[in-house]
Amino acid sequence: MTRLIIVLSLIFWPLSLFLANTVGDFVKYFFPVLLLILSWQLFKKNNSLFLWPTLLIPFFEPKLAVLPLLLGVMNLKRHWLFIGATAIVLAFNFKAFWGQTIFKADYEAQQEIIGKSYLYPNVPLARLFQNKGRIYVNKFTANFLALSDPNNYFFGFHPREIKVDNQNLRKFPFLGIMFMLLGFYYLAQLPQKKFVMVLLTASFISLTVLNIFDRHDVILWLPLSILYIHGVKEFSTKKWWWHRLNRGFYVVFIIFTVWELIRLFL
Amino acid sequence: MIKRLLILSILLTAIVLAIVTRFYKLGTAPAGLYLDEAGQGYNAYSILKTGRDEFGKSFPFVFRSFIDFKTPVYVYLIVPLIPFFDLTPLTVRLPSFIFSILTLPILFLLLRKLSPPKLAIPLSLLSTLLLAISPWHILFGRTNFECNVALFFFLAGVYFFYKSLAKPIWLIPAAALFAVAIPAYHSQRIVTPAILIFLLIRYRQKLLAKNFRPFLILSLAIGLIISLPTISIMFTPGFLARAAGLNIFSSPHPAGFLDNYHGWWEWLVNNRIFLSTWEFASLYVSYLSPRDMFLLGDYGPRSSFPELATFYLWQFPFYLYGIYLLIKNKTLGELRTFLMAFLLIAPIPAALTRDPYSTIRALPLVIPQLTIIALGMIFFWQKFSSKLWRWGMMIALAIIVFYSLTKLYSSVIILNEFFRAKYWDYGWQKVVEVIQRDLDPKLPIVVDNSRFEPYSQLVFFLKYDPLKYQHDNYEVPLNEYYANMNRNRTKIIGNIITRAIDWEHDLLAEQYLIGDELSISYTQIKEHNLTLISEILYPDRSVAYRIVKIKK
C-alpha cells in the first residue's frame, strides 16, 4: 500500500504540469528535472561527476542559469572546475537570465513608491519606507514566502491563489502534508540528506530571484519527493500510539487522492 | 530585589509601548466609524437611556443589529463609558483598548506559570513585549472588535485554571471568565470549550480528587449560571446566524465546485464531503502558513494595515526556529503541551468560515505564534555566550523594535488613513455636521442606502433619542427577536429617511438627498437642476458623499 501511495503522490505534480500546458512547454519545464534525477542517480552511486549533468540546465532554460553555480558552491566537496564551468555558462546566459529576475527595472512599482512618499510628513521617514530597494526586497520576500507556503504545494495556493502569472498547480495530494512533515521531521535519518538539502536550497534561491517562478518550480519536485517518500516510510515503520489506524488512514488517503487526480483532468 | 525591579521595568516598558501604539489617535485613526462600530455604540447608548436596544428588546443576550446578532459582552462594556466619555468613536473603541492592554500582564503571568523555571521570566517578558508591538493585536486594540475582549477573558480563564492546580479555589474565577469568554465573540464558542476539554482531560485526576471536587462542582455551577442566557438562545436562528451564514458547509456550491461538469463522475467530482474537507484543510493550513503570517496578512481592508502583515518579516526565522524547538525540545514541559494544543485548536473556528485568513476570527492564534517566535529568539540568544555578541544582539533588538514602531506609524497612521478611509465609512460624522449646521430641519432628507447602510452612523452622530427611534422603526415582534430573520432596511430618524433614492418621485418634493458619488453624480445634479449643498471628501480627495437640495 505504501508503494501505491508513493506512486499516486509523486505523479501529481508532473501530471498537473502536463495537463495545464502544451507538450512542448511541459518538456521545456520538466527537462531540468530529468537532469537533476540523473545527477541524483550519479550521486547515489558515489560518482564524483554527479553535478555535471546540471550544467546543461541553463542551455535549456536560461532562467535557471544560476542553479548549477549554486549547487557547485554549496556542495561540501568543492568542485572547482565545475564551479568555473558554471560561472562561464552563467556569463554566457547572463543577459537572458538577468532580464527575467526581480532586479529588472519596474517602472510601475517605482511610480507607486514616488506617489506614496508624498504622504509622509518628512523626507527621512518617506525614504525609510518608500525607496527603490524596497521594490526588490518586496519581490524577493513575495517569492520566498510563496515557495515556502504549504498551501502552494498541497492546495495550489488555495485559498489565496496568485492571480497573475501563476497557474496555481496542485503539486501533492493534500493529505500528503502529513508525510511531508514527517519527512522534514526525520530529515536527520535520510541517507541522502546532504544532497537533498543542497538541491532544495539552491533551487529555492534560484527560483526566488526570478520575476515569475511559476512552472520552473517543478525543479523542487525531486528533493521534495525524496523527503515525501522518506516521510511515507517513517509513517509506515514507526510504532506511534495510533499505528493501528495506519491502514485506515491509507484507505482514506487513497480515496481522497484518487478524487483529486480525477479532478486534475477536469 | 534588583532582578525584580528589572523585570518590573521591562514589563512596564512593554505596557507603555502597548498604550502608546494603541492610544495614539484612538478614535480618529482609523478615520471614520464603521457601521458595526456605530451600531454597537448606538445600541449601548439605547441600553443606557432606555434599558432596551434599538429594536426595543430589553437587555438582549445577542444584539440583532443588522441581523448579524452581535455578541453582547462588548456592547454592555460600552454602556458605563458613555456617561463619562459621551457617545463618540473614542468611547466605542475604548473597551478594545482597555482589554488589549490588560491582555499583556495576563499573558506575562500565564507564560511565567507554564514555562520551565529557567525560561519563565525571559519568555514571558519577551512575549509580552512582542504582543505590545504586534500589528495583529494592535489593530484590534484600536478598533471596535469583540475578539480582543474575548481573548482577554479566555486567557485570564486559562491563567486562573493553572493557578487552581495549586489552589483549587481559583477554579471559580476561571469558570466565570471562561463563561464570559464564550459569548464575548463567535470564535470563542469553539476555542474556549475545546481548550477546556483539553485541560479537563489532561488534569482529570487532579480535578476529580477529593479536595478539588467541591470547587469543581461550584465552578461548574457558576459557569452554568453565567452561561444560562447564552444557553437559552443557543438553538435560535439568531444565535446561529453568523455561523450559519459564513460556514464553508452552508454554501450551495462549495469552493472548487465544477459548475460545467455534468458527466458520469459528477457525484464524486462535486461531492460536498470531499470538497468541504479539502476546503477546510486548505483554510486551516493557511493560518499556519508563513506567507499569510509574514506577507499577505488579512485580505480585508479593515482587518489589516497597508504594507503590514500580521507579523513582522524579521520574526520569520525565529518562528521557524521556535516551531522546531516546540516539536523537538521535550524539556519545555507544560508550555510545550499547552502551546501545541492552543496552536492547533485556535485556527479551527476561522477555518470553518469561508474567508481566507480572517485575522479577527483567528485572533487567539496570535498568542501561541508570538510565544513561538519569542522562544526562537531566546534560544537563539542562548547560542551566543560572548558578552560582545549579546550586547550586539540587544542593540540589534532595540533597533528592530524602533524600526517596527516607525513601520507601525507609517502603515497605521499615514497609509491607512489615506488608502482605507472609505472602508471605515469615513465621512458620516461630517455629513451629520452639515445636516445640523446647514440644512433646514423642516425639510425631509433622503439618505441613499442602496449600496451601504448609513442609519447606524446617522443615529450615532446625531445622538438620536433611542425611545423615539424605537417607536418609529418597527422590524419584528419582540417575541420573535431571535428567530425572525426579516429586516426592514428603511429607517426613520426624525426628518431623515434612509432608503434608495427614487429619481422619479423624489424630485417632486422639496427635500435634501444624500448619497455617494454613484448615487448622486454630477450628471444627475445638472440633469435635475439640483443644488449642491456640500461635498464630503475622503483623505485621498475623492468624493465620499454629496448633499444636494431639490428645489421646489
Query: C-alpha Rg of chain A, in Å?
Result: 21 Å
N-C termini distance of chain A: 27 Å
- Note poorly predicted spans of chain B: none
Which class of secondary structure composition applies to the elements of chain B? mainly alpha
Strands of the widest sheet of chain B, in order across it, are 2-3-1-4-6-5
Work out the largest interface and the residue count of each chain: A-B, 31 and 38 residues
Tell me the major beta sheet of chain B.
Answer: 6 strands, mixed
Overall, the morphology of chain A is globular
Shape of chain B: globular
* Total beta strands of chain A: 0
Order of helices and strands of chain A: HHHHHHHHHHHHHHH
% residues in beta strands of chain A? under 5%
Overall domain count of chain A: 1
Low-pLDDT residue spans of chain A? none
Oligomeric form: heterodimer
Number of helices of chain B: 25
* SS strand fraction of chain B: 5-15%
- Whole-Å distance between the termini of chain B? 80 Å
Q: Can you put this structure into words, describing what you see?
A:
The complex is a heterodimer of chains A (266) and B (552). By secondary structure, chain A is mostly helical. Chain A has 15 helices and no strands. Chain A has helices at residues 2-10, 12-20, 23-44, 57-60, 66-74, 80-92, 94-98, 107-117, 123-129, 132-147, 150-155, 177-185, 193-208, 221-237, 246-264. In chain A, α5 runs antiparallel to α13 (193-208) and α13 packs across α14 (221-237). Chain B is mainly α. Chain B folds into two domains: 2-32 and 88-419, no CATH class; 424-550, no CATH class. Helices cover 58% and strands 5% of the residues of chain B. Chain B has a six-stranded mixed beta sheet with strand order 2-3-1-4-6-5. In chain B, α2 (35-50) crosses α23 (455-462) and α17 crosses α20. The N and C termini of chain B lie far apart (80 Å). Classes of the chains: A mainly alpha (266), B mainly alpha (552). Chain A binds chain B through residues 116, 119-121, 125, 128-129, 141-142, 145-146, 148-152, 154-155, 158-160, 174-175, 177, 185, 256, 259-260, 262-263, 266, and chain B through 255-256, 258, 261, 265, 268-269, 271, 274, 277-279, 281-283, 285-286, 288-292, 294-296, 299, 307, 313, 316, 327, 356-357, 406-407, 410, 414-415, 418.
